[in-house]
Each structure stands twice: as structure tokens, then as C-alpha cells.
Automatic annotation (TrEMBL):
Keyword Calcium: no
UniProt name for this protein: Protein kinase domain-containing protein
Annotated source species: Juglans regia (English walnut)
MF-aspect GO terms: ATP binding; protein kinase activity
PROSITE patterns (alphabetical): PROTEIN_KINASE_DOM
Domain Protein kinase residues, every copy: 664-972
One Gene Ontology cellular component: membrane
Lineage start: Eukaryota, Viridiplantae, Streptophyta, Embryophyta, Tracheophyta
Region forming the signal peptide: 1-16
Keyword terms: Glycoprotein, Leucine-rich repeat, Membrane, Repeat, Signal, Transmembrane, Transmembrane helix
Record PANTHER family: OS04G0122200 PROTEIN, PROTEIN KINASE DOMAIN-CONTAINING PROTEIN
Subcellular location: Membrane
């Protein structure tokens, strides 16, 4: 029996031993933790291998518990915490992470881990803290995380998670803090999340959550912080919203779509320290009960529609540090109580309707104030000199108000001042005070921005401006009625990025010392009275982004080194006195966005390299003297919005490539010498809103599609060969021009040839009869008054020399007269043309009637309409001859059709520019161009006086040579001055 008993005991012990051995083989231990961590190690990397600490530290030769970032428990010697935060790692989280079964805390904050969160994390049932914040994790949060019932802190902010917030998170019954901000979560906030009675902090800011806030959220006494910043939440806040949130300390619901008034119960949350409702659509007044929030440190009500006055009770908030109520509709004065809160660091109230003066003791009770921003209101009065007592002030912004009086010199006592913005007020300062103020501001060693823009300072710019802080980045004094010149000392301000002295009364040259400001990005000196050339030193400004020098008296050339300004995007040199050609180097600045060279005296052709400016948006070269063809390469400027080449001497046709300017909104090529047709390709410019091709020599049909359906006659004026719709005030188009012309000629000849034949017979018979009568009897005739200056010949001499216009002396006949050979007594042989009109008259005022048809284009209108012939008709013809001589256009040229004639063309074009009509061969030496154009302009004026429709209003024949002599004398004097 004993032996049997002993055997049973032995067998039992063996069995227990085997069970123990088997159990030891399956229970996880530190080796399991090691294996899981090594899997993590092999799945991650570092952009700089030198800083990959895990590569050498996590070694199987050392204990896991000594590895960096690993913490083991003292009881079981297992891994209980893993913290790899802020180490710059990249990679993914392997599923083996779920084998760290004793893990309590897992922190991987601020790395570059990516991919999805593994489901295996749900096996870490001991986990209390999970922080994957600010990585690149993506996808949806696995619903299995809801199994982590002991989790207290869940931080997944700053990743790229999407989808809805899982309902299963409500199973985390111990959760105290949840942070899911800065992701892409969408949909409603799950109400079940607020069934967690232990929840204290909730941060869901900067997502795409929508809908109203769950009502249950406001029935959680444990809540201390609610942050729903920057979502798409909407609706009203219920009136009883804050009845059951006695411990609420932080409420951030800014940048949503909430509307209505703030619930009165909000102002019963006396534990509140941070309240931000900015950038919503809240309305109504702020109640006096806001004074109950005596623990409040931050109050942001900005960017809503609050109205009414600022309650005086804000003065009760004696712990307030930051106050921002800007961009609302608050009105009335700023309560003095606000300026008595000694804890205030920031006062921001711009863009309201606040009025009245600032308290005279402003600054005395604000020892911690750093920012005072009150711009965009209706404040008036003076700026209190006591402001200097706010010795911590760094930002003083009072722009766009109605402050007046002198700028106090005491501002210079603010030694920490960085931004001083007083622009757009009525502040003034005399020249001595200006010098004193700038000298005082030289004490502000941290000053970065100084803006007095659009104040009537009425002062001379002192050289002390060069003594300001070298940390100064912006000087903005445009539109301040500043006089004097810009001193070279301004080159001392080595940190300047923006200098605006535009729209003043500055004179003198542009200082060359500006070339030393290597950090300058914006230079605005436009609309002054600066003289001299553009200094080539400006080409040293490698960072220059905007250059505005237009509206001055700048002369000379655009510097050829301008292509050194590689950062330049905006170039405005318009309304100056620049001459010469546009340098080719300009077109090498391929990143230019705007170029304005208008209203100068630039000459020469446009370069094909203009097409290099691929991102150009606005190009204005109008009112210069540019010539030649428009380069077709302009068509490659796909981003061009506005193009003006008006008022130049450009020739040729409008390039078809203009149809490629797909972004074009404005096109003005008026006042040039362009010819040809308007390209049909322009119909493709769907954004074109303004077109002007007036005062050119364009012909053909005006396009009818695309943007052309919206243009009026004003777009096409004085292009008399254009045709199109009647509302455009041009000729109707002849659809089959060649066939129509042949048909018209055939029709005319059918009736004209018999009439011409009959007329010739009658004329021949008449001449024979006249010849016979003249042989028998010498008749008295009226003297002819020719215009030839070399010899005056009487009518009697003509009769004698031509033997009474003997047919034997007839040399030839034309449509409008005959030519005879005449031999005078001095053996001079002349060819005499008889137009059959002048011989009818003798006295200048004598009028006779004739059936002679007027010579087309040359004879006065009264010949053709009434058959009235007078010497004043010769004046009209002389005016036409003057126009033909100086324009090189005949009255019967093809361009003159229907109601357009030589006289009308000269009359209309002369209003725009004499260059439009003058014969180009008359322009030679550039020095004499002005004198030539002035002379031709005077002659054309005389010609138009000769061609007045009413004979009685025309200039007298005796006055013509007098006028010509005066024009000649002036021309000679002009030549002597320019020689």
C-alpha cells in the first residue's frame, strides 16, 4: 500500500512538472517584448542615419529594459512604457506591437510615422495612455480601439485621419482626455462619446465636423475643457447650455457657423478662464453679466456681428490678459474701465464703430500692455502723450481713424516698440517736429514697421531718417505731403524690405545709396517730382519684388542691367520722361507679373523676346512712340489679363496669335497705324470684356462671335474700311465683293457708254463752232488767275498762244478737260489745261451757274449739288491738294468709300494725333520730328479752313499765302532751336 501511494505521489509530481514546463513555454515574457520591439525597430528609419539611435542602442546584446525609450515594471520586469516622441523617426507600426501585453503608456508623438493604426493595439488591455499625435497616420480609427477600457488619455491630433469618429470610443469607460484635433474627421460628433462620465477634456478642433453640438455635451459636470475650433458646426446654442457645466474652464468654439445670441447661462460659468467664440455669426449685445467671469484670462469675441456698446462691467475682469473684440459692430466710446485692468497684455478692437477720444491717462495703468490695436474705427482727438507709460508696448496700431494734432514725441520712449502704425488719420507735424520725432524714434532699437501713410504731415523729410533703427523693415509714408529730397543716409537702414515715399512732393534725384539696401523687396517712389535718370545702382537689389517709379520727371533710359533684378514681379515706370528703346534685358525677367511703361517717349520696335514673359498678367506700353509690327510671340502669354499698346506708331496687322491669349480681359491697340483685318481668332477670348481698335486703318468684317456680341461702336471708331452690323456704325459688308463689283460695273457701263459717246460728239461740235467764231471775231474773256508762282499769264495771251484754243493745238483730252500746246511771244512753250471752270469767272465774288460736273474729290460740294461756281470753290480744291500733298493719300483712294473722304479722315485723325495721317517719308531726323509734326499740323489746319462746306465761311484766297508764310517762318525758327 505504501509503495502504491509512493508511486502515485511520484507520478503526480512528474505530471505537475510537465505542466509547469509546458506553461512556461507558452506564457509571454520579456523575450516576447523584445521580439515586438525589434519588429518595430526594423519597420522604422531616420532621414539622418547618424541620429538613428535605435540602430545601435536597441541591441540583443543588452537588456530590453535598458533600451532608449523603454521602461520596464519593477514587479514583472516587463515593458510597461514606450516613449519615442520627438526623435524624427519614419515608418509604420507593426502588428507585433500588440504583444506588449504589460504596456501602460505608448507615446510616439511628433515623428513621421505613417500608415494605419494596427487593430492589434486593442489587445493592450492595460493601456492607459496612447499618444500618436503629430505624425502622418491616415485612414480611419479602428473601432477595435474601443476595447481599451482602461484608457485615460487618447491623443491622435495632428495626423491625416479621415472618416467618422467611431461610436465605439464611448466604450472607453475610463477616458478623461481625448484629442483628435488637426485631422480630417467628418460627420456629426457622436453623442455617445459624452456618456463617459469621467471625461474632462475634449479637443476636436480643426476637422470637418458638422451639425449642431450634441445637447448631452452640456450635461457633463466633469467637463473642464471643450475645444471645437475650426469645424463646420452650426446652429444656435440652447439657452440652458451652460447650466450643468460648473467646472468648465476652457470654451473654444471659434471658426464655426454658430449664430444667434450667446446664452445668458454662459456668464454663470464662473470658473471660465478661456472663452473664444470668434469667427462665427453671433449677434446681439454682450450683457453686463460678463462681469461675473472674474477668473477670465482670455476673451475673444472677434469676427462676429455683436453690436451695441462695450459693457463697462468688463472692467471687473481683473485677471484679464487678452481682449479681442475686433471686427464687430460695437459702437460708442471705449469704457475707461478697460484701460484700468492692470493685467491686460493685449487690447484688440479694430474694425468696429467705436468713437470718441482716448482717455488722457492712457497707459498709466497698463504696465503689462504689449499690443494696442484700435484701427478702423471712428476714434478722434489726439494721441495721449501718456501712452509712453505703457513701457512694455510692442505694437501700437491706430490706423484708419480720425485722430488729429501732432504725433507725440513721447512715443520714442517706448523702447520695446516694434510696430508703429498711424496711417490714414489727420495727424500733422511741422518740419522741426518731424526731425524731433524721428530723432526720438531712433531710441526704439527694435522698431520694425513705421507707417504714417496718408496723414497730412506737411513736413520736409529730414536726414535723421537715416538714424532710425537698423532693425527697421518698413517705412511707409506715402501720401503725406512730404517735401524736400531723399537723403543718401537712407542707405544706412540695412534691414529695409519696403520703402514707400510715393505720392508726395519730393524733388531731386533718386539716391544711389538705395542700391545698398540688399533686403529691399518693395520700392515705391511714384508720383513725386523726382528728376534725373534711374540709378544703375538699383540693379544691385537682388530681392526687389516691386518697383514703382512712375509719375515723376525721370529721364533717360531704362537701365540695361535691369535683368539683374531676378526677383522682380511688378515694374511700374509709367507717366515719366523715359526715352530710347526698351532694353532687351527687360524681357529676360521671365517671372514678371506686371509691366507699365505707359506715357513715356520710348521708341523702336517691340522685341520678339517679349514672349518670354510667360506668367505676365498686365502689360501697358500705351502712349509712347513704339513702331514696327506687333510681335506674334505675345500670343504665348497665356496668363495675360490686360494688354494696352494704344497711342503708338505700330504698323502691320493684329497678330492672329492674340487668339491664344486665353486669359485676356482687356485689349487696347487704338491710335496706331494697324491695317488688315481683325483676326477671327479673337472670338475665342471668352474673358475679353474691353476691346478698343479705334483710330487705325483696319478693314474687313468685324467678327461677330464670342465676346464681340458685347462690344459697341466705341470699340471700332475711325476704321473706315471696317464693315459689320449697323449698330457698330460701320458700313454693311458686301458678301460677294468680286461678283457684286463686276455686276455693278456692267450695269454702269450699259448706261454710261452711250452717254459718254453722245457727250463727246456734242463737245466736238461745240469746239468746232467756237473755233470758227474765234477766227472771225476776237471776244473779250475773263482773266484766268492761275496759282503757278513762276509766271502770270493773261487770258488774252492764252488765246493768242493757242490761236483761240484751236483744235489743231489740241494735244489730248481726258475725262475732265483738254490740254493745248501754247507758244508765247518769248518763245516759251507751255501745255495749258482747261478745266472749263476758271475761265467762266473774273471777279472773285462773281457767281455763275454751270452744268459741269465736279471733279471727284477735288471740287467744292456746291458744284455737284447746285452747279454754283465761284472762286471760293478753288479754295476748297486747294485745301484738298494740301491734304493730298502731306498725307500721300488721294481723294479717290480705295480707303475712301461711302461717307468717308480725305477731308473727313484728316479731320477725325488730326484730333488723335498728326502721326496718324502724316506721310512717313516726311519724318526723318528725330531732332526735327517735333518741328515737322507741328508744321504739318498747322498746314492741315489751314487745309481744313479751306475745305469748310459753306463757301462763305472758307478762308479768303488772299489770306492763304499769309498763313503759309507764317507757318514757314515758325518752322525755320524751330529748326534753328533744335539744330
Amino acid at each position: 500500500m505504501d509503495r502504491v501511494l509512493l508511486l502515485c505521489v511520484i507520478l503526480f509530481l512528474v505530471r505537475c512538472c510537465n505542466v509547469a514546463i509546458s506553461a512556461d513555454a507558452t506564457i509571454p515574457n520579456i523575450a516576447t517584448d523584445q521580439s515586438a520591439l525589434l519588429a518595430l525597430k526594423f519597420g522604422i528609419s531616420h532621414p539622418d542615419p547618424v541620429h538613428n539611435i535605435l540602430a545601435s542602442n536597441w541591441s540583443t546584446n543588452t537588456s530590453v529594459c535598458s533600451w532608449i525609450g523603454v521602461t520596464c515594471g519593477s514587479k514583472h520586469h516587463r515593458v510597461i512604457a514606450l516613449n519615442l516622441s520627438y526623435m524624427g523617426f519614419e515608418g509604420t507600426i507593426p502588428p507585433q506591437i500588440g504583444n506588449l501585453s504589460f504596456l501602460v503608456s505608448l507615446r510616439l508623438t511628433n515623428n513621421s510615422f505613417h500608415g494605419s493604426v494596427p487593430n492589434e493595439l486593442s489587445r493592450l488591455y492595460r493601456l492607459k495612455n496612447l499618444d500618436f499625435g503629430f505624425n502622418n497616420f491616415s485612414g480611419e480609427i479602428p473601432s477595435s480601439l474601443g476595447l481599451l477600457s482602461k484608457l485615460r488619455d487618447l491623443f491622435l491630433s495632428g495626423n491625416r485621419f479621415t472618416g467618422a469618429i467611431p461610436q465605439s470610443l464611448s466604450n472607453m469607460s475610463s477616458l478623461e482626455r481625448i484629442g483628435l484635433a488637426f485631422n480630417g474627421f467628418s460627420g456629426y460628433i457622436p453623442s455617445s462619446l459624452f456618456n463617459i462620465s469621467t471625461l474632462q477634456d475634449i479637443d476636436l478642433g480643426d476637422n470637418k465636423l458638422s451639425g449642431p453640438m450634441p445637447s448631452i455635451l452640456f450635461n457633463m459636470p466633469s467637463l473642464q475643457k471643450i475645444d471645437l475650433y475650426s469645424n463646420e458646426l452650426s446652429g444656435r446654442l440652447p439657452t440652458d447650455t451652460f447650466d450643468h457645466l460648473p467646472n468648465l474652464q476652457w470654451l473654444q468654439i471659434s471658426h464655426n457657423r454658430f449664430y444667434g445670441g450667446l446664452p445668458s447661462t454662459l456668464f454663470s460659468s464662473i470658473q471660465l478662464q478661456y472663452l473664444s467664440v470668434r469667427a462665427n455669426n453671433f449677434t446681439g449685445r454682450v450683457p453686463p453679466t460678463i462681469g461675473n467671469l472674474t477668473m477670465l484670462r482670455t476673451l475673444y469675441l472677434a469676427e462676429n456681428n455683436f453690436a451695441g456698446g462695450i459693457p463697462n462691467e468688463i472692467g471687473y475682469l481683473q485677471n484679464l490678459e487678452k481682449l479681442n473684440i475686433g471686427d464687430n459692430h460695437f459702437s460708442g466710446p471705449i469704457p475707461c474701465e478697460v484701460f484700468n485692468i492692470s493685467t491686460l497684455q493685449i487690447i484688440v478692437m479694430p474694425l468696429n464703430n467705436l468713437s470718441g477720444p482716448l482717455p488722457s491717462n492712457l497707459g498709466l495703468f497698463l504696465p503689462k500692455l504689449q499690443w494696442l490695436l484700435l484701427g478702423g474705427n471712428l476714434l478722434n482727438g489726439t494721441i495721449p502723450s501718456s501712452i509712453s507709460n505703457a513701457s512694455q508696448l510692442t505694437h501700437l496700431d491706430l490706423p484708419t481713424n480720425s485722430f488729429s494734432g501732432f504725433i507725440p514725441n513721447t512715443i520714442g520712449y517706448l523702447g520695446l516698440l516694434q510696430h508703429l502704425n498711424l496711417e490714414i488719420n489727420n495727424l500733422t507735424i511741422g518740419s522741426p517736429e518731424m526731425n524731433s520725432l524721428l530723432s526720438s524714434l531712433s531710441n526704439c532699437k527694435y522698431l520694425e514697421i513705421l507707417s504714417f501713410t496718408e496723414n497730412p504731415l506737411n513736413a520736409i523729410l529730414p536726414n535723421s531718417i537715416g538714424n532710425l533703427s537698423t532693425s527697421l523693415q518698413e517705412i511707409l509714408m506715402g501720401g503725406c505731403n512730404i517735401k524736400g529730397s531723399i537723403f543718401q543716409d537712407i542707405g544706412n537702414l540695412s534691414s529695409l524690405t519696403s520703402l514707400d515715399l510715393g505720392n508726395n512732393e519730393l524733388v531731386g534725384p533718386i539716391p544711389t545709396s538705395l542700391g545698398k539696401l540688399g533686403m529691399l523687396q518693395g520700392l515705391y517712389l511714384d508720383y513725386n517730382r523726382l528728376q534725373g535718370p534711374i540709378p544703375s545702382n538699383l540693379c544691385h537689389l537682388k530681392s526687389l519684388f516691386e518697383l514703382y517709379l512712375g509719375g515723376n520727371e525721370i529721364v533717360g533710359q531704362i537701365p540695361g542691367c535691369i535683368n539683374n533684378l531676378a526677383s522682380l514681379r511688378y515694374l511700374h515706370l509709367g507717366s515719366s520722361k523715359l526715352t530710347s528703346t526698351v532694353p532687351l534685358s527687360l524681357w529676360k525677367l521671365t517671372d514678371l507679373l506686371e509691366v507699365d511703361l505707359s506715357s513715356n517717349s520710348l521708341i523702336g520696335p517691340l522685341s520678339l523676346e517679349l514672349g518670354n514673359l510667360k506668367v505676365l498678367r498686365n502689360l501697358d506700353l500705351s502712349n509712347n512712340r513704339l513702331s514696327g509690327d506687333i510681335p506674334m510671340t505675345i500670343g504665348s502669354l497665356k496668363d495675360l489679363h490686360n494688354l494696352s499698346l494704344a497711342g503708338n506708331q505700330l504698323e502691320g496687322s493684329i497678330p492672329k496669335s492674340f487668339g491664344d491669349l486665353v486669359s485676356l480681359e482687356l485689349l487696347d491697340v487704338s491710335g496706331n497705324n494697324l491695317s488688315g483685318e481683325i483676326p477671327k481668332s479673337l472670338e475665342a477670348l471668352i474673358y475679353l470684356k474691353y476691346l478698343n481698335v479705334s483710330f487705325n486703318r483696319l478693314r474687313g468684317e468685324i467678327p461677330t462671335k464670342g465676346p464681340f456680341v458685347n462690344f459697341s461702336a466705341a470699340s471700332f471708331m475711325s476704321n473706315d474700311a471696317l464693315c459689320g452690323a449697323p449698330e457698330l456704325k460701320v458700313l454693311p459688308c458686301k458678301r460677294d465683293a468680286s461678283r457684286s463689283k463686276k455686276s455693278r460695273i456692267r450695269h454702269i457701263l450699259t448706261f454710261l457708254l452711250p452717254a459718254v459717246g453722245l457727250t463727246l460728239i456734242l463737245v466736238a461740235a461745240t469746239l468746232v463752232l467756237i473755233s470758227k467764231k474765234r477766227q472771225k471775231k476776237s471776244t473779250d474773256s475773263v482773266d484766268l488767275s492761275p496759282l503757278a508762282p513762276w509766271r502770270r499769264v493773261s487770258h488774252q495771251e492764252l488765246l493768242r498762244a493757242t490761236e483761240g484754243f484751236n483744235p489743231n493745238k489740241l494735244i489730248g483730252e481726258g475725262s475732265f478737260g483738254s490740254v493745248y500746246k501754247a507758244t508765247f511771244l518769248d518763245d516759251m512753250v507751255a501745255h495749258v489745261a482747261d478745266f472749263g471752270i476758271a475761265k467762266l469767272l473774273g471777279d472773285e465774288d462773281l457767281i455763275k451757274r454751270t452744268m459741269t460736273l465736279a471733279t471727284i474729290g477735288y471740287m467744292a460740294p456746291e458744284y455737284g449739288s447746285e452747279g454754283i461756281v465761284s472762286a471760293r470753290g478753288d479754295v476748297y480744291s486747294y485745301g484738298i491738294l494740301l491734304m493730298e500733298t502731306f498725307t500721300r493719300k488721294k481723294p479717290i483712294d480705295d480707303m475712301f468709300v461711302e461717307e468717308m473722304n480725305l477731308k473727313r479722315w484728316v479731320e477725325e485723325s488730326l484730333v488723335v494725333s498728326i502721326v496718324k495721317i502724316i506721310d512717313a517719308s516726311l519724318l526723318g531726323d528725330e531732332r526735327y520730328d517735333a518741328a515737322t509734326m507741328d508744321t504739318v499740323s498747322s498746314i492741315m489746319g489751314l487745309a481744313l479752313d479751306c475745305c469748310v462746306d459753306s463757301p462763305e465761311e472758307r478762308i479768303n484766297t488772299r489770306s492763304i499765302p499769309i498763313a503759309l508764310n507764317k507757318i514757314k517762318s515758325k518752322f525755320l525758327q524751330d529748326l534753328q532751336r533744335t539744330a
